[in-house]
Amino acid sequence: MSEPSDNVTMHPRADRSHHLRIVEALLFAAAEPLSAEQLSAALPEGVDLPSLLADLQTNYANRGVNLVQVGGKWALRTAGDLSFLLRREAVEQKRLSKAGLETLAIIAYHQPVTRAEIEEIRGVAISKGTLDTLLEVGWARMRGRRRTPGRPVTYGTTPAFLSHFGLNEIGDLPGMQELRGAGLLDATMPPGFDVPIPRVTDELTPEEDPLDGDEQIPLEMHLPEEEEPAPEEGQDSNEANS
After folding, report:
1. How far is CA 180 from the centre of its chain?
2. 2: alpha, beta or left, given left = phi > 0 and alpha = psi -120 to 50?
3. Alpha-carbon gap, residue 86 to 89, rounded angstroms
4. For residue 34, is it left (φ>0), alpha (ψ between -120 and 50) or beta?
5. 156 DSSP β-pair partners
6. Residue pLDDT, tens place only, 180-198
7. Counting beta carbons within 10 angstroms of the beta carbon of residue 132, is it exposed (0 to 12), middle (13 to 18) or buried (19 or more)?
8. Band of the pLDDT at 91, cuts 50, 70, 90?
9. Whole-prediction pTM
10. What integer is the mean pLDDT of 54-58?
11. Which of 95, 104, 121, 158 has its CA 20 to 30 A from that of 197?
12. Which of 212, 199, 93, 88 is nearest to 144 (CA)?
């Protein structure tokens, strides 16, 4: 008669439950979204992480927090329909100007894009410091230099931009039909108008060279421009500017 073994075999389902608890604990305690590599490092070799994440997403689907993918990483976030409960306690430190939002949108949809190209798309010059603000908050970055005379800097978005706006990748930005459905586009658009499809890679394009390494942030430190005085009543605008 063989002697009883001291080894205890754990049921595979018990192992899976333990692995789910590990992933859940890591996500709960993390201050930032975690990548698949970071999660896998805490699990035994060979564990099916995508299956675990899919199970957790299902488990949290109808709860107060959801498991979402942000910028290619994973995080527990407040359910969208409950976010209003937290807004009253949020501290709004700084609001982007309309010019800043327009510039950010152009960078997101047209990246890589230069300052001159941003101004051409907007139809007006960029206010002094607008790009600096976007660089400072971490939503835009300098990508490289365009292979054209003057080698202007090209700009693109950052993982912080994706995280702030709840996007997994830049290709998740809304298209023209979604923007129109949300009331963000005029119902009567000019003929030929279209919303570009954002690039989904951070790699430099054939038209870009790497940064030189001596670029400085912020790029501008100008004082705000003074507004020109309005012409007096009855005075011709040309006379006021003379």
Report:
1. 21
2. beta
3. 6
4. beta
5. 141
6. 776 666 666 667 666 777 7
7. middle
8. low
9. 0.55
10. 94
11. 95
12. 212
The separation between CA 73 and the C-alpha centre of its own chain, rounded to angstroms, equals 12
Contacts for 32 with CB less than 8 Å, ≥ 6 apart: 73, 75
So what's the pLDDT on residue 107? 93
**Structure tokens of 197?**
């499809």
157 forms beta bridges with 140
CA distances from 96 to 76, 102, 208, 226 (A): 27, 10, 29, 20
Task: Give me the pLDDT at residue 120, please.
Answer: 92
Contacts of 127 (CB under 8 A, 6+ apart): 97, 99, 225
115-126 residue pLDDT tens = 999 999 888 988
Q: Which two tokens stand for residue 204?
A: 């430099």
SS (H, E, C) the chain: CCCCCCCCCCCHHHHHHHHHHHHHHHHHHCCCCECHHHHHCCCCCCCCHHHHHHHHHHHHCCCCEEEEEECCEEEEEECHHHCHHHHCCCCCCCCCCHHHHHHHHHHHHHCCEEHHHHHHHHCCCCCCCHHHHHHHHCCEEEEEEECCCCCCEEEEECHHHHHHCCCCCHHHCCCHHHHHHCCCCCCCCCCCCCCCCCCCCCCCCCCEECCCCCCCCCCCCCCCCCCCCCCCCCCCHHHHHC
